[in-house]
C-alpha cells in the first residue's frame, strides 16, 4: 500500500476523535507510518455488527415487555455479553443464569442476586427491574 | 500533600502512536529505558505474523479468525530474544492489583497493563466490545486518575481508577486478571541480528509447518473452503455476519490483518538494512503486494456485506481471492525460509 492509497473514509463511528496508524510505502518504496480516519469496508462491517446488536436488543426488549423473558436478557444483549460471560460476572453457572432469565424465577431472586446482576450491567437494581 | 505525591509519581513518558497494541507497548516501554526498537522490528522479532481460523471458537456466535499470534506471545519472544527481564504479575482481586500498580508507579516505572477495551472510556464507543487482550501503559497518576499511554491512540490520556480496575479485571476469555508487567533489566546495548534471524525462522515455521489445518497458509485455505459454502450452510443472514467478522478481524484496530502484512513488510525492509541482505528488501516489496491482495479481498467482501445480496458467485469469488492470498503467502514464506541469514 502506497502512502497516498491509505484510505481516509471517515464516518461518524470514529467521531472525528480517532485516527489509526498504518505502515505504507513512500515514493522511494520506504515504509513510513501514516494515519487514517477509516476505511469503507471496515466501516461497513462495523456498522453491520452494531445493527445486529441493536436488533437483538430490540428483540429482547419486546420479549421482556411481552413477559416472555426476564430483563436479564435485555441487559445482557445491551451490554454485548453472552451467556458464558454474564455467568462469570455474576459468579453463577450458565444453567443458573438461564433459569434467571425466566420471569417467574427472576421475580423471586434475592436482593443480593439482583444486585450482582445490576453491578454486572452497571445499573441500579431499580433499573434492572424496570426496563425503559 | 497531594502535590508532593503528584510530583513523586510524575515521570516523563515518550508516547508514540503505533498500529498495534502489543508491539506498540514493547516499542514505547523499551524506548523509556533507552532501548530503541521500532514497532515493526518488535513485531518481526516476536514473529507476530500469523493466520488462524478456528470455527469452533465462537465469539458471539461467529467463528474466530486471527491474523496474528496469540496475545502475549510477541512480548514473550521479544524479551527472550533481546535479553530483557520482565516482571509480570496477575492478581486475585482488583484491590490488590490496583495497590500493586500504585507501588510500581511510585518507583517511577511505566507499567504495561492487560485490559478489556469495553471498559476504556477514552475509546471510541463503536470499538468498545468485550475484547480482553488490549495492552496499554500506565506511567503515573494525576490525583486519583491514572496517566495512560495507549499505543493505538494519538496522544496520552487519563483514566479514572474505577474504569481502569474494571478493564483490568474484566471477566471472560481470556480473563486479564489484572496482569501487569514492567522491565526490571534492560540491556543498554543490544544487537538485533540474531533476534531477527530467530524471529524470521519462527514466523516461517508458524506459517508453513504447523501440522493442523487451522493455522498458517493451511488455515487460509481452510477458511477459503468454508467461506465458499457459507450461504448454503448457515443461511444468508449469518453468512453476511461471518463475512463481516472476517473483515473486522482483518482491518480493525489492534487486529488489522492486511495491516500486519504491511507491518511485517516494514520489518523485512528494516531487517534487510541491518543484516545487509538485499533479498529481504525484495521480499518486503513482495509482501507489500500480498498486503494489497488482502485489502482487495476486504474491499470486495465489504461490498458483499453492504449489498447483502447473497449470490453464491460472490462467495465463490471471495473464496478464490483467499486462495490467492494463501498461494502468494506460501511462496513468500518458502522463499524467506531459504534466505541465508
Automatic annotation (TrEMBL), chain A:
Protein name from the UniProt record:
Uncharacterized protein
Source species: Chitinophaga filiformis
UniProtKB/TrEMBL annotation, chain B:
**DUF4872 domain boundaries:** 162-336
Question: Which Pfam families does the entry link to?
Answer: BtrH_N (PF14399), DUF4872 (PF16169)
The domain of life is: Bacteria
Q: Where is the Butirosin biosynthesis protein H N-terminal domain?
A: 20-151
The organism's taxonomy opens as: Bacteria, Pseudomonadati, Bacteroidota, Chitinophagia, Chitinophagales
Protein name as it appears in the record? Butirosin biosynthesis protein H, N-terminal
- What InterPro entries does this protein map onto? BtrH_N, DUF4872
**Signal peptide residue numbers:** none
